[in-house]
TrEMBL record:
Transmembrane regions: 20-49, 69-93
Organism taxonomic ancestry: Bacteria, Bacillati, Bacillota, Bacilli, Lactobacillales
Gene3D superfamilies associated with the record: Large-conductance mechanosensitive channel, MscL, domain 1
One Gene Ontology term of the molecular function aspect: mechanosensitive monoatomic ion channel activity
Cellular component GO terms held in the UniProt record: plasma membrane
Protein name as catalogued: Large-conductance mechanosensitive channel
Source species: Carnobacterium viridans
Length: 135
């Protein structure tokens, strides 16, 4: 039983499992944000543009069967809008990340004065000499 518990602890608390759990929780929260944006902001605008037509209730009767294709169309529209919103969010995040990365590169490219370079070389040589003397 102890071996089983040790194996379980090793599995459950590995970095990959914890990273996955965090990803799932954040993904759920992000899904709620995107769904709210689509349902409460974008879809009402689509409704205004289409003259208030609710495509979810569209159906056709063929013989005795009622084909409710509106729910399918609504699901397709929701998918496209959600995919578009996620694409825009990811694009914005990537653009911001690239700006931060470029800013860091600019800071890294600052030229060190020649006198300071010489001082660093002297420091490194003294440290190496001290190390050699202690050996």
């Amino acid at each position: 039983m102890k071996k089983f518990m040790d194996e379980f602890k090793e599995f459950a608390f590995k970095g990959n499992v914890l990273d996955l759990a965090v990803g799932v929780v954040i993904g759920s929260a992000f899904t709620a944000i995107v769904t709210a944006l689509v349902n409460f902001i974008i879809m009402p605008l689509v409704g205004i543009l289409t003259g208030g037509t609710d495509i979810q209730n569209l159906s056709i009767e063929v013989g005795g069967a009622k084909l409710e294709y509106g729910a399918f169309l609504q699901a397709v529209v929701d998918f496209i809008l959600i995919a578009l919103v996620i694409f825009i969010f990811i694009k914005l995040i990537n653009n911001a990340a690239n700006k931060f990365k470029k800013a860091e590169e600019v800071v890294d490219e600052v030229e060190i004065p020649v006198a300071e370079q010489y001082l660093k070389e002297i420091r490194d040589l003294l440290a190496e000499d001290k190390k050699n003397r202690n050996s």
